[in-house]
């Protein structure tokens, strides 16, 4: 049996559970025998943990991968065909804590803070210098590799790579592939999943379910809307109230969770209406709680993953292994990816990063044309795109004023704070996070 030797480099391999999902999928894929997997992380202990885990999976699942860990990033990247990125610059402590605690001093509360508002802006400003450096290394040692980006804020970071580096890049987020199954389950319509037909398009974390049909054109979308209006007390919708309210008012369901979308629009987290936050079950400070929980759970889970020589792996719902398989075998695969909007969604800016259906084969990623979104959806997307493009501009210019302008135009910040308060908050974060974002004039 002959094996090819394509190389996958995973940057941020200390994200052990995520590395298991993505690289475990590659190892057990029968069409990807003979992979050369290179692991890199700045945390050498977590890197070793992931290395041991993948060695166990490779042995138990009868994989044929060669797995190597590196302490030198450029060496890890050398000769790569695919680069998978899963990093968090500054980590939970202290960077993410700063993203939450400094805005609180100004009365500004967040839920996840990884995509929009002040948290998303500064997470992007921390991450872009590292991505720029990775791109420079890739130009030198693997210029033709495909970068598969899993890092948030997805649209800003993928957009930066596509606009300001020569690296082929696609951004992936699993909110699309879990959207329809969870929506059907919520309204007790799971039996229609096998035959469901749908289209999703927009921007990352604010992409729209444009239509949803069942077998023989059964109008599932209409049925869901009817049940929501007439029978919602029967269904378990308590964790999805924001998204369902958006669907009710703007006619379409959005892909990402309620706790995310609550902070992408100015309507839901209102300091002057705390009862609304409770009514809609919006979990303020949700991301720090998740981080603390994951840190605690890792103490137990680490032993299960790292010290288990019979560790097995079951296929996850991540797209990365399918993309690599399609490019290696020329068997086409379709998925929603984050790409530049070159005439894809005609009522969104051309330099925006959009999330649309893509076809993948040996020639790479081929985005499909959507045309016009319903105007109310495009209008909501544009409010977020404004911030995304201005944040990219700030990261390139290193001017404080560009950061201020990105923040001034954020839907929630502009609804809650004055421009003077926003500027003071930005200045405090610029100083607190200068270790990662660098010097701004």
Describe the fold and architecture:
The protein is of the alpha/beta class and 441 residues long. The chain has a domain at 7-174: Rossmann fold. 49% of the residues lie in helices and 15% in strands. It is built from 18 helices and twelve strands. The chain has helices at 16-28, 44-60, 73-77, 91-104, 117-141, 154-164, 175-186, 220-231, 241-250, 258-261, 274-279, 286-306, 320-329, 375-397, 400-408, 411-416, 419-432, 434-437, and strands at 7-11, 36-40, 66-70, 82-85, 146-149, 168-171, 197-203, 206-213, 253-254, 333-340, 353-361, 364-367. The chain has a six-stranded parallel sheet with strand order 3-2-1-4-5-6, sandwiched between helices. The chain has a three-stranded antiparallel sheet with strand order 7-8-9. α6 links the parallel β5 and β6 (168-171). It is globular, with a radius of gyration of 22 Å. The termini are far apart. The model has no long low-confidence stretch (mean pLDDT 96).
The gist of it:
With 441 residues, the chain is of the alpha/beta class. Helices cover 49% and strands 15% of the residues.
CATH superfamily of the domain at 7-174: NAD(P)-binding Rossmann-like Domain
Count of DSSP-assigned helices:
18
CATH architecture of the domain at 7-174: 3-Layer(aba) Sandwich
CATH fold-type name of the domain at 7-174: Rossmann fold
Reading off the top of the CATH hierarchy, the class of the domain at 7-174 is best stated as Alpha Beta
| SSE pattern | EHEHEHEHHEHEHEEHHEHHHHEEEHHHHH
Low-confidence stretches: none
- Distance from first to last alpha carbon: 59 Å
Query: Average pLDDT, to the nearest integer?
Result: 96
Q: How many β-strand stretches?
A: 12
Instruction: Estimate the helix proportion, in percent.
Output: 40-55%
What shape does the CA trace take?
globular
């Amino acid at each position: 049996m002959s094996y090819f030797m394509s190389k996958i480099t995973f940057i941020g391999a200390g994200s052990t559970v995520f590395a298991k999902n993505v690289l475990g999928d590659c190892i057990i894929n029968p069409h990807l025998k003979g992979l050369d997997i290179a692991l890199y992380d700045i945390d050498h202990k977590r890197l070793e943990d992931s290395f041991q885990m993948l060695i166990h999976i490779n042995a138990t699942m009868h994989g044929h991968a060669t797995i190597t860990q590196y302490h030198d990033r450029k060496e890890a990247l050398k000769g790569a065909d695919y680069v998978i990125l899963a990093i968090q610059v500054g980590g939970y402590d202290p960077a993410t804590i700063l993203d939450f605690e400094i805005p609180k001093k100004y009365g500004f509360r967040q839920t996840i803070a990884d995509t929009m508002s002040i948290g998303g802006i500064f997470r992007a400003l921390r991450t872009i210098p590292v991505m720029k450096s990775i791109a420079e290394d890739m130009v030198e040692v693997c210029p033709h590799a495909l970068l598969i980006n899993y890092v948030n804020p997805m649209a800003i970071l993928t957009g930066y790579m596509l606009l300001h580096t020569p690296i082929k890049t696609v951004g992936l987020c699993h909110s699309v592939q879990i959207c329809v199954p969870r929506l059907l389950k919520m309204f007790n319509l799971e039996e229609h999943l096998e035959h469901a037909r749908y289209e999703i398009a927009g921007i990352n974390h604010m992409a729209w379910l444009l239509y949803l049909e069942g077998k023989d054109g059964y109008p599932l979308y209409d049925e869901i809307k009817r049940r929501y209006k007439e029978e919602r007390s029967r269904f378990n919708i308590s964790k999805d109230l924001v998204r369902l309210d958006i669907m009710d008012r703007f006619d379409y369901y959005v892909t990402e969770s309620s706790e995310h979308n609550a902070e992408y629009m100015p309507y839901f987290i209102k300091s002057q209406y705390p009862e609304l936050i409770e009514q809609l079950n919006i979990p303020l400070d949700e991301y720090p709680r998740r981080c603390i929980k994951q840190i605690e759970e890792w103490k137990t889970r680490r032993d299960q993953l790292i010290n288990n020589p019979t560790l097995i792996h079951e296929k996850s719902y991540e797209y990365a292994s399918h993309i690599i398989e399609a490019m290696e075998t020329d068997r086409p695969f379709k998925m929603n990816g984050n790409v530049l909007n070159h005439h894809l969604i005609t009522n969104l800016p051309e330099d925006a990063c959009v999330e649309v259906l893509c076809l993948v084969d040996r020639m790479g990623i081929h985005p499909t044309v959507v045309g016009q979104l319903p105007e109310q959806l495009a209008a909501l997307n544009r409010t977020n795109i404004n911030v995304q493009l201005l944040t990219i501009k700030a990261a390139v210019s290193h001017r404080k004023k560009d950061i201020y302008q990105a923040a001034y135009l954020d839907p929630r910040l502009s609804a809650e704070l004055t421009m003077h308060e926003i500027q003071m908050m930005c200045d405090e974060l610029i100083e607190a996070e200068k270790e990662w974002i660098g010097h701004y004039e």
